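Section 3.1: Structural characterization of target chains.
Under the original work plan, the team committed to producing a structural model for every single-chain target entering the pipeline before any wet-lab resources were allocated. The record below documents one such target. The sequence was received from the expression subgroup and is listed exactly as submitted; it comprises 206 residues.
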Amino acid sequence: MNHGKKIALTLGAAICALTSLPAVAQATSTVAPATPTTQAATRADSLPSKSQWLADVAPVAADLRKHLEQRLAGVPHGEKPAVVLDIDNTSLATHYDKGKPIEAILDATKYAHSHGAAVLFASYRSADSKDSTTRQLTSAGYTVDGLCLKPEGHSPGKAAVKLGCRKKYEAAGYTLIANVGNRSTDFEGGHYEKGFKLPDYDGALS
């Protein structure tokens, strides 16, 4: 995979400026302003209703599914495509419905897996939660082909941990065709083909 090419990052409700990423695409596939409803919800001390959050997630999930359909339609011989996902408020609805999947994201991963892509996770959860996190993900319906967590001891920070996970997966031979998260730290440093950012409402949703 060519790490020097531009990385498109699909944003959800909020537009985050990531200086480490050379190109940015919005949730609607082209640059578009946030809706008034979303703008009102981006106060750090306020979060939208579950229904509004899911409405903000929907266009990102739709773009993810479209990308997977196109990308997996012609996988080069010998390539090991994979989708890498954050967990909390990206794969699981941790804030709004703890332990339950975000259905639109789950459906996208099921499509990816059924068309030959691995489903990998990169999270800042602690390493000693590996077993419980795996159970939580599988109980929610996810296939877990890989789980990378924050290492024990001193941590270099969320962005560095997530980047280290992606590099680890690449070293194992995977081509990370999509990276899905909800915080800017899920995308810093690259090492994926295209990013899909769910809303975090200016950091109010962890």
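The longest helix spans residues 50-71.
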